[in-house]
Each structure stands twice: as C-alpha cells, then as structure tokens.
Amino acid sequence: MAQLLYSKHKRSRGFTIIEVLVAAFILFVGLVAVAGVVGSTLANTSRSVYMTQAATLATEKLEDLNRYPPSDANVAVPNSVSAGSLTSDVTGYYDNVYFSPTVGALVETTTGVDPVTGNLQYSTMSYTPDGNMAGPNTTSTPPSSTGSTVFERRWMIEQDQPVVGVRRVTVLITLLNQSTAAGVTFQMSMVRP
Asked: How many domains does the chain fold into?
C-alpha cells in the first residue's frame, strides 16, 4: 500500500521537459499565425487607403473633363479616333498628383502644361481640416516627393465608343511610389456626348 501511494505521488509532480517543449511550440505557432494575420491586415488597410485615394482622383478627373462642352479642346478628338493614352505620357492628357500630409492638413500638387510656354507647371493647393483652402500656387519646379504619396493620372478620350455619337473617357490612376507589396492601379470610364 505504501508503494502504491508513493507511485501515485511520483507521477503527479509536474510537467516533463517534453510536455513543456510541445506546449511552447504550439504557443509559438499560434503567435506566428497571429502576427501574420496582423501584418496582412495592416498591408490590406494601407492598400485600401491608396485605392480610395485613386478612386477619388479618377472621379475628380472625370468630373473635370465632363464639365467641358463637346467642342472644347480638352475633350475634343482631333483625329476622329482617340486622344491621349493610358500607356504613355501625352502632353495635356496626364498629370501627377502629390499628397503631402502635414499636421491635420493635406497639400495636393498637380502637374499640368503652361498653355503659353508649353512647359510643365506645378500647381499646389492646401486643404485644412476646418475647410479652408489656400492656393493654387504655381511653380515651374516639382515638389519634393520625400514623404509624399505620388499618383500618376492618364486619360484617354475615344470617339464613337461604345456607339457612334458618344465619347468614352477613361482615366487610369497609378501609385508611383510603391509602398505596398502589390501595386495600386485604378481605372474608371464614363460615356458622354
């Protein structure tokens, strides 16, 4: 009887080194999985922010182009087929947008072509959280892209697409400074007379 009590007492002393190692391994695997999910969530959140900005920029450009009358040079198709390009920079049909966050404000710089000289010009607008805007301030030198989010906007206008008598306007937005694993591009079209 004394030996039976001794053997029961001996078996219930604690965990063996193998049990501790198995438990530590299971905990390690769980923590690695949680870290992977957190990292993936952060990357997707960042990508979502860039996609939202790209959608806003595409909508803004389509609205700008839609306000011109059909005969205006900004939306005219001189060769009766198409104007602009989604794959290369065609003067007058592309610009870059720089977003520079400052304390609670947003600074947006767009590129354009000076109609008099034909040179690139950079127009900067500042937006504050209280709804005030400052600008545009126009210069001939590009802003620093350090710390900025830079998007390229290209647009193309196609005559008689998708049917005769209308124009399809397509805007392609591309994030230039890739800080996300997958690139960010966004394309949007509208049809107008």
From this structure: 1
